[in-house]
Automatic annotation (TrEMBL), chain A:
Catalysed reactions, as listed in the record: Cleavage of peptide bonds with very broad specificity
Protein name: Proteasome subunit beta
PANTHER family found in the cross-reference section: ATP-DEPENDENT PROTEASE SUBUNIT HSLV, METALLOPROTEASE TLDD
Pfam families per UniProt: Proteasome
Function of the molecule: Component of the proteasome, a multicatalytic proteinase complex which is characterized by its ability to cleave peptides with Arg, Phe, Tyr, Leu, and Glu adjacent to the leaving group at neutral or slightly basic pH. The proteasome has an ATP-dependent proteolytic activity. The proteasome is a multicatalytic proteinase complex which is characterized by its ability to cleave peptides with Arg, Phe, Tyr, Leu, and Glu adjacent to the leaving group at neutral or slightly basic pH. The proteasome has an ATP-dependent proteolytic activity. This subunit is involved in antigen processing to generate class I binding peptides.
Record's subunit section: Component of the proteasome complex. The 26S proteasome consists of a 20S proteasome core and two 19S regulatory subunits. The 20S proteasome core is composed of 28 subunits that are arranged in four stacked rings, resulting in a barrel-shaped structure. The two end rings are each formed by seven alpha subunits, and the two central rings are each formed by seven beta subunits. The catalytic chamber with the active sites is on the inside of the barrel.
Alphabetical list of InterPro entries matching this protein: Ntn_hydrolases_N, Pept_T1A_subB, Proteasome_bsu_CS, Proteasome_sua/b, Proteasome_suB-type
Keyword Cell membrane annotated: no
Record GO cellular component, one term: proteasome core complex, beta-subunit complex
Organism annotation: Cyprinus carpio
From TrEMBL, chain B:
Localization of this protein: Cytoplasm; Nucleus
PANTHER family in the record: METALLOPROTEASE TLDD, PROTEASOME SUBUNIT BETA
Top-rank lineage group of the source organism: Eukaryota
Name of this protein: Proteasome subunit beta
Residues that span the membrane, as ranges: none
GO-annotated biological processes: proteolysis involved in protein catabolic process
Residues annotated as signal peptide: 1-20
Alphabetically ordered keywords of this record: Cytoplasm, Nucleus, Proteasome, Signal
């Protein structure tokens, strides 16, 4: 059996993690687990929030080295607010994603972090962008990332439907994260979900004992 | 005549001793990967793969993809990774193609010999143990992940209930009802040489991608058709995401009646909405 372990030589604290974002009818949901680990055996935080708000209706979630991710998102937040003031209107989700991409691409040697940017803007509505490790930018209807995402590729491929309702999308995200957390030892804790629509931003937390259970539990 | 018998027995036992095979050290060439040059000259043949086996009431469904790769070259796109070890015991092979073929050949020989000695059908657990012994003893040299599954009749006062069991009267005509478990079992022997029994097991490089799907979709009391559909869908999802898995889906159903094999071709594979 080919080894599917990803021995990540990530410096310092890492979000060995599972993150996802999914578009539904009227908005996006961005979600993650809540575990931060050092190496593969020490959990340095059980309740970290990996969903970072970079603007009113734009969130980012991070995978990889926490330090790098925090530095990049801090920079992106600053640049985005400046851009938004200059334009005198809320920024586009694509603008936020592009800022992250510039930072990741120009510093690809030093950085070790990947991002999912999701949000809502007036021009194109709900959108999801992925900025991968080397600085590629890609728009997708749903996306998963982090070490735990390997285990749920089959599940999300089978279960995703375009234009789901809000309840279906929440169920889909919670199930996917619970399944990944069940198989990946560096993902765990609680499920954080943020629902972004035109009207509001809602933060939903699903604690461990309320997570869906599967046949062998 | 009597004088010959000890001699024959001695010959047979020494025959059994010599089944310890020599395994060459596997070639490890994970450096030197360069997009400009073909790497099949340096990489060993691997069944980077997706394999799966599911127990149901009365039988077991085994499935595998059909791709064998040498680096980025697909050496065989219609491989049969479901190898018969005995009449109603099969194994799914993943890892190094050479290693798994050698192990399967050795175990087939040992199991056949054992079955002749016992004069009855061998147990699936015996087959799995033979795989485990070999994979554990030579774990430094081997790269093999194997799923062993099959059907065996277990007799007399047994306690081993699986997801299927039937009650039968003892043949001796005794009036008590004795539980005779006609068992199907799935054993997994991953890299390193552990053995464990599971109702559903996946393996190979593509298996990582379908853990979530299998965890959420498996239910204990499925019918044969549901198991076939479940296996085909899971393998298709893995084949879509794993570069080392692909081709056709080969399925085998093992039950008391025997073995039924089928192939699902590329254009007949189940489709999912994102594809």
């Amino acid at each position: 059996m080919d080894s599917h372990h990803s021995y990540s030589q990530v410096k310092g604290v890492s979000t060995g993690t599972t993150i996802l974002a999914v578009k539904f009818n009227g908005g996006v949901i961005i979600g993650s687990d809540s575990r931060a680990s050092m190496g593969e055996s020490y959990v340095s935080s059980k309740t970290i929030n990996k969903l970072i708000q970079v603007h009113d209706r734009i969130f980012c979630c991070i995978a990889g080295s926490l330090a790098d991710a925090q530095a990049v998102t801090k920079m992106a937040k600053f640049q985005l607010s400046f851009h938004s003031i200059q334009m005198e209107s809320p920024p586009l989700v694509k603008a936020a994603a592009s800022i992250m991409r510039e930072l990741c691409y120009n510093n690809k040697e030093e950085l070790q972090a990947g991002f999912i940017t999701a949000g809502w803007d007036r021009k194109k509505g709900p959108q999801i962008y992925v900025v991968s490790l080397g600085g590629m930018l890609l728009s997708q209807p749903f996306t998963i990332g982090g070490s735990g995402s390997t285990y749920i590729y089959g599940y999300v491929d089978a279960k995703f439907k375009p234009d789901m309702s809000l309840e279906e999308a929440i169920q889909f995200s919670t199930n996917a994260l619970a399944l990944a957390m069940g198989r990946d030892n560096v993902s765990g804790g609680v499920v954080h979900l943020v629902v972004i629509t035109e009207a509001e931003v809602k933060h939903v937390v699903v604690p461990g004992n309320k997570l869906p259970k599967f046949h062998d539990e | 005549m009597c004088g010959l018998l000890p001699g024959v027995l001695h010959l047979l036992s020494s025959f059994k001793m010599s089944t310890a095979l020599q395994f060459p050290a596997s070639v490890s060439t994970l450096n030197n990967y360069n997009d400009l040059y073909p790497d099949w000259t340096q990489r060993e043949v691997s069944t980077g793969t997706t394999i799966m086996a599911v127990e149901f009431d009365g039988g077991v469904v085994m499935g595998a993809d059909s791709r064998t790769t040498t680096g980025a070259y697909i050496a065989n796109r219609v491989t049969d990774k479901l190898t018969p070890i005995h009449e109603r015991i099969f194994c799914c092979r993943s890892g190094s193609a050479a290693d798994t073929q050698a192990i399967a050949d050795a175990v087939t020989y040992q199991l056949g010999f054992h079955s002749i000695e016992l004069d009855e059908a061998p147990l699936v657990q015996t087959a799995a143990s033979l795989f485990r012994d070999m994979c554990y003893r030579y774990r430094e040299e081997l790269m093999a992940g194997i799923i062993v599954a099959g059907w065996d009749p277990r007799r007399g006062g047994q306690v081993h209930f699986s997801s299927c069991s039937q009650t039968r009267r003892r043949r001796s005509g005794s009036s008590e009802r004795v539980c005779v478990c006609v068992c199907v079992q799935v054993y997994t022997v991953p890299v390193g040489g552990m053995m464990t029994r599971q109702p559903v097991s996946v393996g190979g490089s593509g298996s990582s991608y379908i853990y979530g799907y299998v965890d959420s979709n498996y239910r204990p009391a499925m019918s044969k058709e549901e198991c076939l559909k479940f296996t085909a869908e899971a393998l298709t999802l893995a084949m879509e995401r794993d570069g080392s898995s692909g081709g056709v889906v080969r399925l085998a159903v093992i039950s008391e009646q025997g073995v039924e094999r089928q192939v699902i071709l590329g254009n007949q594979l189940p489709k999912f909405s994102t594809v």
